[in-house]
Structures are given as structure tokens and as C-alpha cells.
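sorry for the late reply, my laptop died twice this morning and i had to redo everyting from scratch. anyway the thing you sent over, i finally got around to it. pasting the sequence first so we're on the same page, its 271 residues, then the predicted structure underneath. double check i copied it right bc i was rushing
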Amino acid sequence: MILAMFQTQVSTLRGGPWHLLIPVGCIGVVVANLSWSVESQPASAPVLPVVSVPTPTVVDDRIDVAYDSFINNPTGSQLSFTRLSDGHHVGSATERYPRPALSLIKLYIADYVLVHGTEAEKEQALEMIRGSSDGYAEELFAAYPDSIEAVARDYGLWSTRSSEEGWGYSVTSMYDVVKFVRAKLEHDPKSPLLQAMKEAHDTAEDGYAQNFGTAVLPGVVGTKWGWSNDYVVHSSVSFGDDYVVAAAVLGSAEDLTSLVERRVRPLLAGQ
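ok and here's the structure:
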């Protein structure tokens, strides 16, 4: 499994409980671009250009060595894309690496609560998806501490792990997030979870705009976003009628949007 492949070091991000999982053997490697792996690629698929992903400049002398090393680590940016009609899959070389799950982990918590929770808890879970409520995430994870691990086991999400320290310390990968959403679309298309992603609020509970990353792509139907409390890490997952895509980056919401536009939009040409 992915986690067994690396010795790891964990450090807390300033401004919130986001933990960084760092492959020690990769420390000091600067991210210059993303390599793409392709599964079941048809001969007519577009050849993707190599795009340089800028490393964000973080001005804060309180950032420790581990966090600084993570910024220069290949896990810094991830993309994963799957087309539903034929299973065509494209992803960055890092797409399966565990990384800070941010609020994308709320999808897994909500999925578990929708099966095992009370009616009141189920409504809280759905609002947690629409408005990215940290308060509901705290309450629901406290009530169901095994929720993340159970969903990871049931869906085969091998890069996903929770933490006894709280939901905000969990990790996942963009590959896992796409795999999860794809499974919901194929086996439970009327899931209230997917509906909540369709009904996402314009702004999150904390006032942050939910309008970036994969959400800007053509044909998007539903989205869930994530960001660290200091806004230096961003992620999102979206689905359309025939695809699921997830992306994460060390950088601003605009950096994530730019990455998605340049790397994923060519895959949607003609859709």
C-alpha cells in the first residue's frame, strides 16, 4: 500500500489543524512540472503539454523545516481525471500520494453518516458538504470516529487515513477522491451526497468563495472544495455527466484554477 512505501514525517500547518505527510526520501526535490500517467488511453487522445507549476512563495519565518520541505516535494501538486463512458484515465505521477485531505475528507464522513446516522445527523452531513461546515465535521467525526477508515476500506481508498487527533489531520489522494466519486456516480447516482455537491453554496460557512479549481471546467455538475486555514493549500473535486476530476496544489485558489485550466480543459474538448 502507498503509506507503507515511505518513511514519513508529520508537521502541523500554521493557521489550522492541517497535517502534511512528507516522504522523507523526497525532501529537497523541487517541483518543476507534472508527469502524467495514462490508463486505457485511446489513440486519438490529446497529447498534453508539460506545464510548469509555480511553487508558491510563502513569507513567514515561523514555518518549520518540515513544512518548507513539503513545498519543494513532488506531492505538492496532484491531478486525477477519469472519463466515465470508457474509463479513460489520466493523472499526475503523484496522484496516488497521500496528502492533506483538507475538507475533501468531509465527503467520506458524510457518506458514512448517511448510512449510519440519525436523520438530524444526515442533514448536518449534507450541509457540511454544501457549506463546508467545520463545526459539523467536528461533531460528526467525534460521533463516528471510524467513519473515514470504514469508507476507505469499503471503497478501496488505499491512500486515505484518518487520525485520532481529529478529522483535520486526515490524508487522502486525488486518485482516491476521484475513485470514490466515480463509485457513487456508477452505483448510487441518486445519492444525497452527490445532490449536496450540486447544491454547494456560493460561499462556505467561513465566508470563503466556493468558485475555484475544478469547478470552472465545462460541464461541471457538482463540486466539493478544500483549503487550509492559512490559504496556502487548495484542492477540489468535481463531476460532470461523463467525468470526475480532482486537483490539489500548494498555492492559492487562483493557482489551482490555472493548473486545472491548462491541464484538464484539453481533455474535455468537444464535451
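The domain at 2-41+52-268 is CATH 3.40.710.10 (Beta-lactamase).
thats about all i looked at so far, will dig more tmrw
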